[in-house]
Design brief:
Elements lengths: L1 E5 L7 H10 L3 E3 H11 L4 E4 L6 H11 L9 E4 L3 H15 L6 E4 L5 H9 L4 E4 L1 H9 L10 E4 L2 H6 L3 H10 L5 E6 L4 H10 L4 E4 L11 E6 L5 H9 L7 E5 L3 H13 L4 E4 L5 H12 L5 E4 L12 E6 L6 H8 L10 E6 L4 H11 L4 E3 L28 E6 L6 H12 L6 E6 L4 E6 H13 L4 E3 L3
Parallel strand pairs: 3-8, 3-9, 4-6, 4-7, 5-6, 7-8, 10-15, 10-16, 11-13, 11-14, 12-13, 14-15
Antiparallel strand pairs: 1-2, 17-19, 17-20, 18-19
Helix pairs in contact: 2-3, 3-4, 6-8, 13-14, 15-16
């Protein structure tokens, strides 16, 4: 994947060059070698690149090289998901070193007013998702007439997710745009057609993608709600011996910090690794881990790039990776030099499509498993199992409960629950009477109590996991 072409071969500013040196990056990957000189020269570029090929630096370096720390918006980067936006911004901030550029993420699911205040302070580069960027533009917090450079990452996924009308809306507002960089793992005809509409004689760079090596390790997935993911991790960690080392992956810096905090609270000595740490802090943590001085590190994908530790015997995906290739990069850090290794992925209901995509893409054998049993000699869980029906609930928080009876009418079943739960009628949803059982929907807040109440009436009730 790496070439013999060093980053120093290009006219990148001194701050970026120093940032690359601090990260220990000397030689470019193939996609970087093929696209960076074209982008630095100001050409429009369409690059074929998978995650793990170095594509973020391929568009990130030319983008940052073209910007000055002025506090005025000069470049807009769009990604399909908030997780990828975070990952891209994190890597660019790490690469830029002391360059001083303000790089902000703009995506939904976060406090809009807080985001607006951050934008008001001044921003050089925005990394965002289409919907929130449009929203902030319409509210007057982003002036799309300012940036000259536009980057579209994972264009094929954008197309799959129905974002292309939004992207075209954004492009029409970018009246000052002079350069566009587009990266995609595949090139459906719709992307080529769209590119011809909004790009200026783009250079096509089709990098041959290498097949990723799948390590010969045991791979497991555990279907579990977020409330009990730490319970599973506790069981996994208490199986480890003094020589074992564990690497836990989360998709965001905030989740890394929360996991470290919670693991330490439960008497597991864990350290976190993400892009907000300075170079010296990262190096100390990695060196300590490599030397065996620490046993558990929680990291984001970008921050974990410097981790090459032979003693890792367990990789845990607390979050299912947002990109299919990142799964392979993660699990490849265990099972080194003939050692036995395991990879466990904690999967919520909403993660199942992504895990299936990962399995299909790389023809993986991931065993659906229960949480491991406690090892001999340990009688109590390090982390207490919580009552959690969130995985069974629908988007309105209603949990379906199967009742092994048809003797009660809908009204009778509803009255029984209202009397037992002392709740309002809105907490009871649809009731279906089938030929051999009934199904009643109860709000998540009351679901467990409802099961106990029904069982106390000898009605044999249980929650239906969707």
């Amino acid at each position: 994947m790496f070439t013999t072409t060093p980053f120093s071969a290009w006219e990148l500013n001194s701050g970026l060059q120093q940032g690359l040196i601090d990260m220990g990056w000397e030689f470019s990957t193939q996609v970087q070698k093929d696209t960076i000189p074209l982008a630095i020269a100001g050409k429009d570029v369409i690059g074929q690149a998978r995650t793990g090929s170095g594509k973020t630096a391929a568009f990130g370096l030319p983008t940052m090289n073209a910007c000055q720390p002025s506090g005025k918006l000069q470049a807009l980067l769009l990604t399909p998901t908030r997780e990828l936006a975070n990952q891209v911004a994190e890597e660019m901030n790490t690469i830029q070193g002391d360059n001083g550029l303000t790089i902000l993420t703009v995506y939904g699911g976060t406090d809009l007013e807080k985001q607006a205040r951050e934008l008001a302070k001044g921003v050089d580069i925005i990394v965002g998702t289409p919907g929130r960027v449009m929203d902030m533009c319409e509210r007057g917090h982003i002036d799309l007439g300012l940036p000259k450079l536009f980057v579209l990452d994972e264009a094929d996924r954008m197309l799959d997710m129905g974002f292309f009308p939004d992207i075209m809306w954004v492009i029409e507002k970018m009246t000052n745009r002079t350069q566009t960089l587009l990266f995609s793992a595949t090139f459906p005809q719709e992307i080529i057609d769209a590119a011809n509409e909004f790009m200026n004689e783009p250079e096509f760079v089709l990098t041959n993608t290498e097949k990723l090596d799948i390590p010969p390790i045991d791979q497991h997935s555990v279907r579990i709600g977020r409330a009990n993911k730490l319970w599973v991790i506790g069981r996994l960690l208490c199986r480890m011996n003094d020589q074992d080392q564990t690497l836990i992956f989360a998709n965001t810096k905030r989740m890394v910090d929360l996991l470290v905090q919670r693991l330490n609270k439960h008497r597991f000595d864990a350290e976190g690794l993400h892009g907000d740490l300075n170079q010296n802090q990262r190096e100390k943590i990695i060196a300590k881990f490599r030397e065996g001085g620490s046993k558990i590190v929680v990291a984001t994908d970008v921050a974990a790039r410097g981790i090459d530790v032979d003693g890792i015997t367990l990789v845990v995906n607390y979050d299912v990776p947002d990109d299919v290739d990142n799964y392979v990069h993660r699990i490849g850090r265990t099972g080194r030099i003939g050692r036995k290794g395991e990879a466990w992925t904690l999967v919520g209901r909403d993660d199942i499509p992504q895990l299936n995509k990962i399995i299909a893409t790389h023809s993986l054998e991931i065993t659906e498993s229960e949480a491991p049993t406690l090892p001999e000699g340990i009688e109590r869980d390090p982390v207490k199992l919580q009552e959690d029906n969130g995985e069974a609930a629908d988007v309105f928080g209603m949990v379906p409960i199967k009742v092994e009876t048809t003797s009660l009418s809908k009204l009778g079943l509803s009255d029984l629950l209202l009397d037992s739960l002392k709740c309002t009628e809105i907490a009871i949803g649809d009731i279906t009477i089938n030929h051999d059982h009934s199904v009643v929907e109860v709000h998540n807040r009351h679901a467990s109590l409802a099961v106990r109440a029904l069982n106390s009436k000898n009605l044999s009730a249980s929650i239906i996991n969707q």
